[in-house]
User: What shape does this take?
Amino acid sequence: MKVLLVDDEPSLVQLLGQNLARQGHMVESAGTVQDARLRFGQSFDFALIDWTLPDGSGLDVARELLELDPKVRVVFASGYPLEATLMPLHLRDRVRVLQKPFLPRALAEIMNNWPL
Assistant: This one.
């Protein structure tokens, strides 16, 4: 799978990127909304996006990514509890949420059990 990691915590991006690469996934990473947008020309199967980024919202990244490719699977990662009411109705069935901190196996479980 080709995975986009969007998070402003370099240590988390490095840990997850290495873990995903060991599992055979190709990983691209971005630390900001702008960095993520620069990668939108590529096709991704899966995206893990931090809810809060230094230059904007992970929700904006997800909306734009899903407009370009409705089949991409998006997981939001957040250090704050995300209430379902914060998620726009049209996205609620198309995304998942992981509460930080989480173990890499929690991400792997979502990736492996979310049908294409």
About this structure: The longest strand covers residues 73-78.
